[in-house]
Amino acid sequence: MKISYEWLKEWVDIPVDANSLAAELTMIGLQFAGMETADGDSILDLEITVNRPDCLSLRGLARETGVLFGTEPRLQPELLDVEVIRSKNTEGSYSSGEFPLRIALEDPDLCPRYCGQVVSNVTVGASPEWLVRKLESAGIRSINNVVDATNLVMLELGQAMHAFDYRKLSQATIRVRRAREEKLLMIDDRERMLRAPMLVIADADRAVAVGGVMGGKETEVTDQTTVVLLEAAYFQPASVRVTARTLEMSTDASFRFERGADPEIQATACRRAALLLEQLAGGKAQPVLDVNALPFSPIKIGMRPERVERILGVKISPEFMERTLVALGFRKSSANAWTVPSFRVDVFQEIDLIEEIARHYGYNRFPDTLPKAEKKYQPDYSTYELEQNVSQYLRGTGIDEAYTFSFGTEGEVQILNPVSETGTKLRTSLVPGLLESVEYNLRHRNREARLFEIGHIFLAAGEKTMLGLAMTGEYRELKGILESMFPALGYAGPSWSQATLLIGDRQIGTMQQLAISGHEVQACEISLTDLVELPKSKIRYQAIIPFPFVERDASFVLDASIPYFELQQVFAEIKMRELRSYQLVDRYQGGNIPPEKVSLTFRFIFQSETRTLTSEEVEALYDQIVAKVTARFGAELRK
Amino acid sequence: MDLEKLRKQFVARLESVRTPGDLEEVRNDYVGRKRGILTALLKDIPKLPAEERGEAGKRVNDFKQFVETELESRKNLLEQPAKLELTDWSLPGKEYHPGAPHPLTIVRRKIEDIFREMGYAVADGPEIETDFHNFTALNFPPDHPARDTQDTFFVDRPEDGPEKRNCLLRTHTSPVQIRNMLQHKPPVRILCPGRVYRKDEMDATHSPIFHQIECLAVDEGITFADLKGTLLHFLRRLFESDVRLSFRPTFFPFTEPSADVSVSCVFCDGKGCSVCKNTGWIEILGSGMVHPAVLENVGYDSEKYTGFAFGLGIERIAILMYGIPDIRLFFQNDLRFLSQFRIVL
Known about the structure:
The structure holds two protein chains of two kinds.
Chain A lengths: L1 E3 H7 L6 H9 L4 E8 L2 E7 L10 H12 L14 E4 L3 E4 L6 E5 L7 E8 L8 H9 L7 H13 L3 E5 L7 E6 L3 E4 L5 E4 L4 E4 L4 E4 L3 E2 L12 E7 L2 H10 L5 H6 L8 H16 L2 E9 L7 E3 L2 H8 L5 H10 L3 E4 L2 E3 L10 H12 L22 H13 L3 E2 L5 E2 L4 E3 L9 E2 L4 H13 L6 E10 L2 E11 L2 H15 L4 E4 L2 E4 L2 E11 L2 E9 H4 L18 E10 L4 H11 L4 E10 L8 E10 L8 H19 L2 E3 L1
Parallel strand pairs in A: 4-16, 6-9, 20-24
Antiparallel strand pairs in A: 1-3, 2-3, 5-6, 7-15, 7-16, 8-15, 9-12, 10-11, 12-13, 13-14, 17-19, 18-19, 21-23, 22-23, 24-25, 25-29, 26-27, 27-28, 28-29, 30-32, 30-33, 31-32
Helix pairs in contact in A: 1-3, 4-5, 5-8, 9-11, 10-11, 12-14, 16-17
Chain B lengths: L2 H13 L4 H12 L5 H8 L5 H30 L23 H15 L3 E2 L5 E3 H4 L19 E3 L10 E3 L4 H10 L4 E10 L11 E11 L4 H16 L5 E8 L2 E10 L16 E10 L1 H6 L8 E8 H9 L6 H4 L2 H4 L7
Parallel strand pairs in B: 1-5
Antiparallel strand pairs in B: 2-4, 3-4, 5-6, 6-10, 7-8, 8-9, 9-10
Helix pairs in contact in B: 1-4, 2-4, 5-10
């Protein structure tokens, strides 16, 4: 909302300059966003929060300013002294004289109140300089004296109005009803299809405006117009919002109506606009026809001083509270009860009143305290610690953490309104995003890229927290990192069944291998949601064996097609107590090794828990292993 | 003859060896030609009864072999220092680097640590949310302009059936509050970090995906003053300086009273610079007292319990802290970016 400092001063005395005013308004919740100066005036740009449509007007801002400085605002502009014909039904009319009018509220749930007023003998023309300037200060372009008058009323009182060319309305009738499949060419020269539940203003034959949004082209005020019908209505906020969004329109009117208009201001708005039309366009005003099917009944709210203190943490004097609420337009109805003014559509509970007190007391005057000590221990979410530990472990091995997008081209959950073509689904794996990042880095001349990410994936059955990893390098490098990771996290060591990673017999992850820009890239993905469910092993001290161990190496030449795990199985089958461990220390192909064969060099470690092994015993154990491997795989021991 | 006892003695002797001279002494004591214990034992073997000689000889010989192997390996160890070939202390080290935590993780962890020390638990929740948890329970009326500030992605999961548009990508981390309160009776003290989604095209300052961290405390007797004090403590720890705070009234559907909070600019100490656009203040977070309607929506007695909540954007803090000019850098995973954050966390 743009507001002229000089114009505001016509409504309320301001003892400070524009800069100070801006700072003070910010501190009561009318956020200052910028200032322009022109012709000795300052135009303040205020960000009015959605709950305060009353402050989208001079009247509302003057009221707040008055509270701020303890000055009395002048809230009532000059009105035309004219008869108001009231109807408490859904219909009203008057037919006396040359300009009859009939108003019917066919859908009072969406429009409970509609004021119409005919102004005849109007000469449409340019607006005077002062009016043009006032509108421009608020960012509104001058159209003609009639439209400008209605816009001025909107800025003064917050009530958006519309002016029809009375003579173009069929049978001098206004019907406010839901749209039925009908087209309307609107003031912006665009034709739109209107359908329920949009609310339209119609004459006897057809729609002539979209309620609370914009008028129709055919009935708009032009240079030829001599009789004007002024409209000031209350439209149901949610309905206006749905209509405006469906039509993809936002106007000054819809902006105000969807936030909530003052339901008591319509007749006043007409009388103000009629006065302006008489002054500016030589008009002759007829009575206001006020059809009000749902008269406003103000609400009363209790406010307990002790509750104020319990919420705010400070004792505020009853005098301050009373003074503030009265100045804001609330009326004290009994000891601790307050009547809410019609323009405060945001206030309907005790807490709303407490906020009014807090806002004007000044947030920065409240003390700074801390809550009392915690009363109950609550654990972190289930995978929290695991996520931290995984991250720490992987960073320790030199892998960098990445954040990739959750969108993808493939997935089980569809985004119904995506922003770009590349992301219409939610990811079911972290790996594609990580591979893309690896590829990005290789393309930018990094020779290696090792990345991990911890994040959600989205499956038809629900979400899971995953660890994704993608890195340049050999498969065995990644596998080594994973083999040590699970015990370091407290879980059993992993095993593999093809590309599936298992802990015990639970599938916990998958592996992938691919080539990117000529680099070998390894990837894996592990479900932390599943992992955290598994039992964790506890560390138990094991006595250090005091007897020496003996290392023996053996190189086998065997068919390259034999998978490594078959050798592992053989070593396990031997069940040799003294074989403490074994390790593959070299894998070699080529040279003097026949093609299709591979040389595997193992280092075996022998050790007894009870005594020193003799060289003959070690030799015998070693021979046993060699015999088994050569027999099972037709392997040859390489000398 | 107790060879096992002898072996233990030998191992102990070997442990105490520090110099080649010590080693030579041990050698002489066990296998020396003149006074070696094992030399003496071997000499005595022929004196044994014939049926014991073979077994005893083998055991002593095995032991002797063990002794000699151990002496040899110890000798190698003692001689190793002689093999040092360092000639130039200025030679480069072998390249080694720890993995970098992502800058958003650094900020997130910093905040989590501050609050975990004060007894808050870290809570999480799904990123696909229902309208109830993301809006309705948080006191956003249907078709209210308050929803406009949080432009929403709607999603369709096959099993959601015909009731489409009921599921959405959470636009803030506040639904985690709702889930947590529905599960736990008060008191509640939680921190909810996570990924959130708003329908924005990607540019230097906008991203349809970003991260928030939200804090909620509900208990008997929690006041607006407690919110102020908690934020003062938190932001001073976060920025590691005596920042001042400024609270301004604002509107959020789920808190009342609500406050926007600014910190005095950490770069110019409030004097005015390019980061704070010469205002001396940096807007940092939104906060407020939990709206009674929200408490009632999760079945809490809003007369008995009060609470505060606040939330902030993690990207925003990281941008401030590290001077990052473009939000897209967070999601590109360019190593030239990530490697700048290779710190221990």
